[in-house]
């Protein structure tokens, strides 16, 4: 979590109060997985390539990701 100006914990907690569905995309990191689990969100790792074509994994987070499966 490289963005020091963002309170990620507060962002995840605030997302719990959203009326509709949402999708957040984060680097696949243990801290992000823990926040998502704590808030009861679905998570799904997806393969990505960065601008240098290096393979990496990103984490999709949302209330309901059944549409991915």
Element layout with pairings:
Layout: H1 8-15, E1 23-27, H2 30-39, E2 42-49, E3 55-62
Antiparallel strand pairs: 1-3, 2-3
Largest sheet: 3 strands, antiparallel
> Radius of gyration in whole Å, from Cα?
12 Å
What's the number of helices? 2
Shape: globular
Helix/strand class: alpha+beta
Low-confidence stretches: none
Lateral strand order in the biggest sheet = 1-3-2
Give the helices and strands as they follow along the chain: HEHEE
Number of strands: 3
Summarize this structure as a short list of keywords or feature phrases:
3-stranded antiparallel β-sheet, single chain, 3 strands, alpha+beta, 30% strand, 69 residues, globular
Account of the protein in words:
The protein is of the alpha+beta class and 69 residues long. The chain is 26% helix and 30% strand. The protein has two helices and three strands. The protein has helices spanning 8-15, 30-39, and strands at 23-27, 42-49, 55-62. Strands 1-3-2 form a three-stranded antiparallel beta sheet. A hairpin with a 5-residue loop joins β2 and β3. The radius of gyration is 12 Å and the shape is globular. The relative contact order is 0.23. The model has no long low-confidence stretch (mean pLDDT 91).
Task: Offer a concise description of the structure.
This protein has 69 residues and is an alpha+beta fold.
């Amino acid at each position: 979590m490289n963005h020091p100006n963002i309170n990620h914990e507060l962002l995840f907690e605030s997302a719990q109060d959203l009326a509709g569905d949402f999708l957040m995309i984060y680097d696949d990191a243990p801290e992000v997985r823990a926040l998502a689990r704590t808030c009861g969100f679905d998570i799904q790792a997806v393969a990505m390539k960065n601008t240098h074509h290096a393979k990496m994994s990103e984490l999709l987070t949302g209330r309901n990701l059944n549409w991915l499966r």
